[in-house]
Every structure is written in structure tokens, then in C-alpha cells.
């Protein structure tokens, strides 16, 4: 069957017509078409991790299960024993390989597999080169940026722990954390920490703990191992999953000298699982000691303040104004009496001066007053209209006059 006839299904060249509900394709036709489409992919180079090897004694065919380290996906690979012995004679489960293969669809079983004609085991040097290239890529994208790293909470309410089941790393984290803070609460998710299934399980555990609102910090812990054993913790998918976490993540992988890429992406890198326990919770005994020291410093500060203020009060009390407060009252009373006396003298002087001035003015007024002239025997002659007569020509015979004396008045008439 050609690729063209499989693709259009138009019935040209003797192929079956397009499938409909009334004229469906038989299973064999569907299988043939699927096989034809897969065959069009041709030969490809595939990178993966060997999850299983099956060598049957006396058989020339070897079966491999090739797994993607970053996803829960696998494919079956068939190859000749000679091909395997030539390219990877010491191949073991968990090893990384690059193989040249062609996808094939087995219609009888409805399965897809790869037929390899060349297999290359990825050596340590090549693995390190790949990790270095990935490290540069992630660094360029900002996954290692210190500015985005979050501080751990001082005392987390609950700690999420991702580690191997019943592992030494799990025991170290739990034991040391509870030794430092007995009331610490953990939510532990056990996963595979090496092998083909490690990365998907760790990523799933991260999602579970990151969506748990009670978890304040997540610790990913594993004991030491070879570079190949620690490869899952340098996986790109895991690094991106940690970068996307909203919860702070602590990486505690291997020993001090081990540095998987997870260490660079995590918010805090712990040299060992024990070091991670020391970083995520405070030491109760140390905090109690610090509190006692702070209390002692506070007590000393309060005592010094009280002593200083007491001494200041003593100095204030020793001043005369406070030692004999009546002195101040007596002094003010004397000042007030002196001011009153001074005010009285000043007032008396001003009143006396005013009295003399008034007496002199009165004397001058009396000297200038017409009454004083009348007292000396003079009189004032006025006409009936009150006009003072100063000359004889101002009156006529018979005019009535009024004569004012010092004491009393006289009525007169002009005669002649």
C-alpha cells in the first residue's frame, strides 16, 4: 500500500472508498493506513532512558523499554543482539542511550515499537556536556536569578517533604527537624528518587504539595549517589516545575559536593538533608536561649532607666525650690508686698501732685473770676436783655437796669 492511497482514502488505485457510517472500513484497512502513516516518519535518532532490557537465551532479538526521563511515556524497542553488543555491550537498566530507529506498527497486535539498527550508550562526559548546556539555557531564561528566590518562613506551619520511601534522607530530615522543633508538622510524599519514573513522580508530588494551602515550604531530599543516580534532579521538566511553584522550595540532594541543577533553581540550597532540616525550622533550645538573653537585656535596660530617672528625681528634689517650697512662696509674698508698697507710694505721690496742680489751677481761676472783682466792691450792670453795659451811651433814660453785686442784685432805672 502506498502512502498516497493511504492518505486520501478516495478509492483511487483500488483502495477502499472514504469511510462512512454506511460503509465503514474494516479493522485491517485502518491498521494498514496507520502503519503507512507511521512508516512515513522514516528513520530517526531517539534519546531516552532504558527502563527494561529483555535478552532471551538463544534469541537473536533483544527487547528494550525506552522511557522519557521527563514524562510518563515509554516505547518498546527491538534490535538485534549484534547491534546491542556492538554499540552498548554493558547496557544496564537506567542508562541513557541514543539510538537510530524506525517506528513500526504491528497490525496484528495494534502496537507501536521502534526497530533500532544502531545503539549508543551516553557516556558520563556526554551527560555532563548535556547538563552544562541545559544549565546555560536555564540560566539565560532567568531560572537561577537570585532576585526571584523567596525567603523561607521563620516557623512554617507545615513542611512538605518529597523523598524516597524509608530512605536515610527522610529519616535525617524528620529526625533533625523534630529534634530542633518537636512540634513541627510534616506532609511527606514518597517517590522514586532515581530511575525512569523519578521525574514524573517528583513533579506530581510538587503539584500536590504546592496546591496544599497548609504547606508553607517544600523540601526535596535525597541521599548521595553517582552522577547517573542524581540525573533526575537535573531534569529540565523538574527544574521548570520547581520554578513555577508558589511555595518556597528547598533542595537537599546528595552531599556538599553534589550540585544538580535543582540546587540552582530552588529558593534555598541545602548541602545535605540534615542541613535542610536545620534551615526550615529554628532550634527551640537556641530560640529559648535568645529569648532569655533578650529578657535579661530588657530587664537591665528597664532597671537602668528606672535608676537613671530615680537619680534625676533625687536631683530635682534636692533643689531648694522643692526641698523648701515655702521659701518660694515667702519670696513671692515679699515681692508682692514690696510691689504693693511701691504702688501705694507711687499712687500717693501722683495724687499729691494732682492735688497741688488742682489747687493752683483753682487759685488762678478764682483770681480771674468776676466774682472776685465783685467781692472787692465792684458791680455788673446789665440791661434787661442781659447785655452788660460798658458805656453810658449804651442805655437811654428810663431803661431798666439790673445791677449784680457780690451778694445779691439791685433793680434800677436810668435817670437822665
From TrEMBL:
**Substrates-to-products reaction catalysed:** Exonucleolytic cleavage in either 5'- to 3'- or 3'- to 5'-direction to yield nucleoside 5'-phosphates
Q: What is the top-level taxon of the source organism? A: Bacteria
Exonuclease VII large subunit C-terminal domain: residues covered: 143-349
Alphabetical UniProt keywords = Cytoplasm, Exonuclease, Hydrolase, Nuclease
> Biased-composition ranges for Gly residues?
1-16
Location in the cell reads: Cytoplasm
Q: Which Pfam families match?
A: Exonuc_VII_L (PF02601), tRNA_anti_2 (PF13742)
A single Gene Ontology CC term? cytoplasm
One of the entry's Gene Ontology molecular-function terms is: exodeoxyribonuclease VII activity
Supply the EC number(s). Answer: 3.1.11.6
Role of this protein: Bidirectionally degrades single-stranded DNA into large acid-insoluble oligonucleotides, which are then degraded further into small acid-soluble oligonucleotides.
Q: Which family does it belong to?
A: Belongs to the XseA family.
Quaternary data: Heterooligomer composed of large and small subunits.
Q: Tell me the HAMAP family matching this sequence.
A: Exonuc_7_L (MF_00378)
| Name of the molecule in the record | Exodeoxyribonuclease 7 large subunit
Q: Which organism is it from?
A: Micromonospora sagamiensis
Amino acid at each position: 500500500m502506498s502512502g498516497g492511497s493511504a492518505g486520501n482514502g478516495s478509492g483511487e488505485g483500488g483502495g477502499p472508498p472514504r469511510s462512512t457510517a454506511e460503509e465503514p472500513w474494516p479493522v485491517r484497512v485502518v491498521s494498514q493506513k496507520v502503519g503507512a502513516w507511521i512508516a512515513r516518519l522514516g528513520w530517526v535518532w531517539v534519546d531516552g532512558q532504558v527502563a527494561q532490557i529483555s535478552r532471551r537465551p538463544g534469541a537473536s532479538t533483544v527487547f528494550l523499554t525506552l522511557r522519557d526521563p521527563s514524562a510518563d511515556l515509554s516505547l518498546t524497542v527491538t534490535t538485534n543482539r549484534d547491534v546491542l553488543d556492538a554499540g552498548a555491550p554493558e547496557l544496564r537498566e537506567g542508562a541513557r542511550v541514543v539510538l537510530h530507529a524506525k517506528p513500526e506498527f504491528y497490525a496484528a497486535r495494534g502496537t507501536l515499537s521502534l526497530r533500532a539498527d544502531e545503539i549508543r550508550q551516553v557516556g558520563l562526559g556526554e551527560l555532563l556536556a548535556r547538563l552544562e548546556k541545559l544549565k546555560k539555557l536555564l540560566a539565560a531564561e532567568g531560572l537561577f536569578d537570585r532576585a526571584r528566590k523567596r525567603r523561607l518562613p521563620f516557623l512554617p506551619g507545615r513542611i512538605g517533604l518529597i523523598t524516597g520511601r524509608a530512605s536515610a534522607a527522610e529519616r535525617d530530615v524528620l529526625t533533625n527537624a523534630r529534634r530542633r522543633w518537636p512540634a513541627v508538622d510534616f506532609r511527606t510524599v514518597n517517590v522514586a528518587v532515581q530511575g525512569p519514573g523519578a521525574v514524573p513522580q517528583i513533579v506530581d508530588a510538587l503539584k500536590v504539595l504546592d496546591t496544599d494551602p497548609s504547606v508553607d515550604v517544600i523540601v526535596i531530599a535525597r541521599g548521595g549517589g553517582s552522577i547517573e543516580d542524581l540525573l533526575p534532579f537535573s531534569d529540565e521538566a523538574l527544574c521548570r516545575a520547581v520554578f513555577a511553584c508558589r511555595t518556597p522550595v528547598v533542595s537537599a540532594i546528595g552531599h556538599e559536593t553534589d550540585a544538580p541543577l535543582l540546587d540552582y533553581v530552588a529558593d534555598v540550597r541545602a548541602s545535605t538533608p540534615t542541613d535542610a532540616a536545620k534551615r526550615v525550622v529554628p532550634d527551640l533550645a537556641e530560640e529559648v536561649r535568645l529569648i532569655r538573653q533578650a529578657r535579661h537585656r530588657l530587664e537591665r535596660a528597664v532597671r537602668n532607666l528606672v535608676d537613671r530617672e530615680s537619680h534625676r528625681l533625687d536631683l530635682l528634689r534636692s533643689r531648694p525650690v522643692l526641698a523648701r517650697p515655702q521659701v518660694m512662696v515667702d519670696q513671692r509674698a515679699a515681692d508682692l508686698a514690696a510691689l504693693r508698697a511701691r504702688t501705694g507710694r507711687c499712687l500717693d505721690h501722683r495724687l499729691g501732685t494732682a492735688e497741688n496742680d488742682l489747687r493752683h489751677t483753682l487759685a488762678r481761676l478764682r483770681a480771674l473770676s468776676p466774682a472776685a472783682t465783685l467781692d472787692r466792691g465792684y458791680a455788673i450792670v446789665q440791661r434787661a436783655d442781659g447785655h452788660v453795659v460798658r458805656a453810658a451811651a449804651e442805655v437811654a433814660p428810663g431803661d431798666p437796669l439790673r445791677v449784680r453785686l457780690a451778694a445779691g442784685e439791685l433793680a434800677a432805672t436810668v435817670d437822665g
